[in-house]
UniProtKB/TrEMBL annotation:
SUPFAM superfamilies in the record: Ribonuclease H-like, RNA-binding domain, RBD
Domain RRM, first and last residues per copy: 470-544, 565-643
Protein name: REXO5 exonuclease
MF term (GO), any: RNA binding
UniProt entry keywords in alphabetical sequence: Exonuclease, Hydrolase, Nuclease, RNA-binding
Annotated gene: Rexo5
């Protein structure tokens, strides 16, 4: 049986997640597409139905500052969880994990219709009369069963071979036999009105995972008489530089689609007619979600009611074809996976009627409010509570488990157990978590470890340590040495933040602070003992209490699972684009992703990049190849990555905010240092507790560890999330 898989934000991308987005992930992981839970917008879970369970570990008094300050102590976390994301700090964080309640009742909300137990488990006589049941029956079918027949295509004005008006249409040549495992592709076009009628001005194609393969503007052959900007989103200015013609798009679509491809769209006949293309196998979601008397549901309504997604929003200028194509594709996938009976239970017709009545009532209310003297502006509509997915879990016979040292839930929706220590929490978790499909476990540092003064000390120490690790001293140089030559030589190791000449010594030295850790380390490794600007120099970091364990930290960073299979390359020409670099490094075997970091303030990319490979061995081989290029005169220099993912952005932010530090008396600082030592031991124990619990989890369990963030008088510290699906190796998969 295939394992579940987690696809997080792309390598190098910054990802700050709100509590609502986190709720979105946990709801889908716990419920799948039942109760209209939908794939989270910021990551994807593949084969959700194969998940053995969901475990959320919360460290309530901690932020990402704590994770990186006690990086060496969090030995298990950094070696197991590959996916990391920034978490927006939130008050009442635990409550936000399981939605609002506990007295929530199913209602029509922007999140979609959430079913009650009677709706999930009973088949009413009305559902048997549903047009979907009448058309497809109640049993699940393979996707090939929903492909339109040739007769259905002709009846619904699809372009087909030999049909009147289809002369000159291009065939996709996808003539291979379709099966239930044939690939699905979502297609949508936007049209403008020209002298010849509707012509394509934008085309989008997405694959079965929702990845956009094509999103192209097209210049029509005829003169545009109406851009229909309100619906198409197309303006005259957008099309002015466009040279792509319809024939170019036809050629690209033919080459992109495999021979057994199935196209999915909403009223797809209009898109194919505008594209002047013929494709034999289509699934039309406007026909799939059948209604009586030939009527059709709008795509916007289906996306909201079935997927819980808002598309074609009024705030946006026109429709987004990629968004529409993705929505149609996900609707088809939902229908195929859930089957006609489950779709019929949604009672879409009733939901649409309810929605229309609500709109009428709201309009009446607007008119009444506008009639009141002095009422000039309508207040925002009342807030509708998010559905509590813990109630939905209960409907399916599951009762979530909550364990911690403080009161976690008063709704009665969970098996809640209050413990007096983290050790008790662990013992209870080892017994109960394997028996629960959804668990929230809380390990606490205790209130005595969350003071503003301690947070201030942590912030100052982390900032100081980062500065020291990013800084190197080089020298001695001759009195009349060329500073430009030194800057050029050290600049080959990576982006320089500052360079100053040290004149307090007998002979001049230079102090260089880099933007990234890899650059400083590369300078120490490659230029120590080298001849620079006519002098044989020594290169070293400043010797401070913070850098005494620098070598240990560098080694551990290299072993961090986030840096697995990733190398750092410096000495790039700034004129090279990401596409140029892709071509340059294309000969490196198993190259998966290239990430070109940019300055957070100017937005300009630096003279370095990170390369991620499919395997660690491929990364080792790539290092040898690039070092061989260097031996032959190339400017490039490379080494193993140290801070390639979430950490490098955090370093940049800390590096540019180090000016905000407080002065603390020596006596007070000594007291704080003692507190920090105590905190270090507690953090180490918590990491060990998580390691024990993680080992006890079943394979294919989604595990999420959350540092919620801190709000204090010293300032706000963002949270951090780590997640992964446990595999056979005991590590987080994907």
């Amino acid at each position: 049986e295939k394992s579940s898989c987690l696809s997080a934000p792309l390598f190098g991308e910054d990802c700050e997640i709100s509590r609502d987005q986190l709720y979105e992930l946990l709801k889908y992981a716990a419920l799948g597409k039942c109760h209209n839970a939908t794939q989270p917008s910021w990551c994807r879970i593949y084969r959700q139905s194969h998940l053995a369970g969901v475990v959320v570990i919360v460290l309530p008094e901690m932020s990402q500052l704590h994770f990186y300050r006690f990086y060496l102590q969090f030995k298990h976390l950094r070696r197991v969880f590959q996916h990391r994301f920034t978490l927006t700090p939130s008050a009442n964080f635990l409550a936000s994990l399981y939605g609002e309640g506990p007295n929530w009742k199913p209602q029509n909300t922007a999140q979609g219709l959430t079913a009650t137990s009677s709706e999930c488990n009973s088949k009413s006589p009305e559902s048997q009369c549903d047009p979907i049941i009448q058309k497809y029956g109640g049993k699940k079918r393979g996707l090939s069963s929903y492909i339109l027949s040739l007769e259905e295509q002709k009846k619904n004005d699809y372009p087909t071979k030999g049909s009147p008006g289809c002369n000159g249409y291009v065939c996709t040549d996808c003539n291979q036999q379709r099966t239930d495992s044939s690939p699905l592709f979502g297609l949508d076009c936007e049209m403008c009105l020209t002298a010849k009628g509707n012509e394509v001005t934008r085309v989008s194609l997405v694959d079965a995972q929702g990845q956009c393969l094509l999103n192209e503007l097209v210049r029509p052959e005829s003169t545009i008489v109406n851009y229909r900007t309100r619906f198409s989103g197309i303006t005259r200015e957008m099309l002015l530089p466009v040279k792509t013609r319809l024939s170019d798009i036809q050629t690209r679509l033919k080459s992109m689609l495999p021979h057994d491809a199935i196209l999915v769209g909403h009223s797809l006949n209009n898109d194919l007619q505008a594209l002047k293309m013929i494709h034999p196998s289509v699934i039309d979601t406007s026909l799939l979600f059948a209604r009586n008397e030939g009527r059709r549901f709008r795509l916007k309504f289906l996306a909201r009611a079935v997927l819980g997604k808002e598309i074609q929003c009024e705030q946006k200028l026109g429709h987004d074809p990629a968004e529409d194509a993705r929505a149609a594709l996900e609707l088809a996938q939902f229908f195929i996976e859930q089957g006609p009976a489950k779709v019929a239970e949604l009672n879409l017709e009733m939901l649409l009627t309810t929605e229309k009545l609500a709109e009428v009532s709201q309009k009446k209310a607007v008119l009444q409010l506008q009639g009141h003297k002095g009422q000039r502006q309508l207040d925002k509509p009342p807030h509708l509570s998010n559905p509590c997915f813990l109630e939905c879990l209960q409907v399916t016979g599951q009762k979530p488990l909550l364990l911690g040292r403080q009161e976690l839930d008063s709704s009665g929706l969970c098996q809640s157990n209050l413990s007096t220590s983290n050790k008790q929490v662990l013992q209870k978790a080892l017994e109960d978590v394997p028996l629960s499909t959804f668990s929230i476990i809380q390990f606490s540092l205790g209130p005595e470890n969350i003071s503003s003064h301690l947070l201030a000390e942590l912030c100052e120490k982390v900032g100081s340590k980062l500065t020291d690790m990013l800084t190197i001293y080089a020298g001695p140089f001759e009195e009349s040495f060329c500073l430009k030559s030194v800057k050029k030589q050290f600049g080959k190791c990576g982006p320089i933040q500052s360079l100053t000449v040290v004149t307090e010594t007998c002979q001049p030295y230079v102090c260089i602070q880099y933007e990234v850790l890899e650059a400083a380390q590369l300078a120490v490794e490659s230029l120590n003992g080298a001849e620079v600007a006519g002098a044989c120099i020594k290169v070293q970091r400043p010797v401070t209490a913070a850098t005494l364990d620098c070598d240990v930290l560098i080694k551990e960073l290299e072993l961090d699972v986030e840096n697995e299979g990733v190398i750092y390359v410096a000495g790039l020409k700034k004129s090279l684009s990401e596409q140029d670099l892709q071509e340059k490094f294309s000969q490196l075997k198993d190259l998966e992703t290239l990430f070109l970091p940019k300055d957070l303030q100017s937005g300009k990319h630096w003279n370095c990049c990170f390369l991620k490979f499919q395997t660690s061995q491929s990364a080792v081989d790539a290092l040898e190849v690039i070092n061989d290029w260097s031996m032959k005169g190339s400017r490039l220099r490379s080494r193993n990555a140290l801070a390639s993912g979430h950490l490098w952005r955090w370093i940049c932010q800390m590096n540019h905010s180090n000016g905000k530090q407080r002065n603390v008396s020596c006596k007070k600082m000594q007291q704080l240092s003692d507190s920090e030592q105590d905190l270090k031991k507690k953090v180490q124990k918590i990491d060990h507790h998580i390691k024990k619990l993680y080992r006890r989890l079943q394979n294919n369990t989604l595990c999420v560890v959350l540092f919620p963030g801190v709000n204090s008088t010293y300032g706000s510290q963002s949270g951090l999330g780590l997640m992964g699906i446990k595999d056979d190796s005991g590590r987080s998969a994907c």
